[in-house]
Amino acid sequence: MTEKQAISCEKAPKALGPYSVANCWGNLVFTSGQLGLDPATNELVPGGIEAETRQALTNIKYVLESSGSSLENVLKTIVFLKDMNDFGKMNAVYAEFFKTNFPARSTVQVAALPKGGAVEIETVAGIIK
Predict the structure, then answer these.
(1) Residues 38/56, Cβ–Cβ less than 8 Å
(2) What is the reported pTM?
């Protein structure tokens, strides 16, 4: 692929604004940040940072699969936390999804996230053809 291709995904929440849930270019897929939103309601899942992290990563999994990639092909993640004190709890759930051959990662604290979320995660992944 030598041009940008927008990705849509029925199993993940719809975009909250004028953006794609992911774009592919060549053998790379760039996901937009995913909150811990329930795809059926587009509302945050209950249960705090752990539940939101688990849902955000599940949403990313589905978006990546829609693009022809997978969590195993994630090269880089960026984690946005509303409160850096939640890092340990987020990290424990993150380790459920990434067990070996870990992606590079940055984690930053932000002033606020859409819908009052505790965490938002974006990825860059490869597409194996």
Answers:
(1) no
(2) 0.95
Instruction: Tally the domains of the chain.
Output: 1
Would you say 123 and 64 are in contact if contact means Cβ atoms under 8 Å apart? Answer: yes
pLDDT digits (tens, 9 = 90+) for 45-97: 999 999 999 999 999 999 999 999 999 999 999 999 999 999 999 999 999 99
H helix or E strand, kind and range, residue 67: helix 48-67
Kindly tell me the sign of the dihedral angle through the C-alpha atoms of 111, 59, 23, 123.
positive
β-pair type (74-81, 5-7): unpaired
Q: How far apart are CA 53 and CA 31, in angstroms?
A: 15
DSSP 12-58: SPPPSSSS-SEEEETTEEEEPPEESEETTTTEEPSSHHHHHHHHHHH
> What CATH number does the domain containing 84 carry?
3.30.1330.40
Q: Please, which pLDDT band fits residue 3 given cuts at 50, 70 and 90?
A: confident
Q: Are strands 28-31 and 43-44 parallel, antiparallel or unpaired?
A: unpaired
Domain that holds residue 82: 5-126
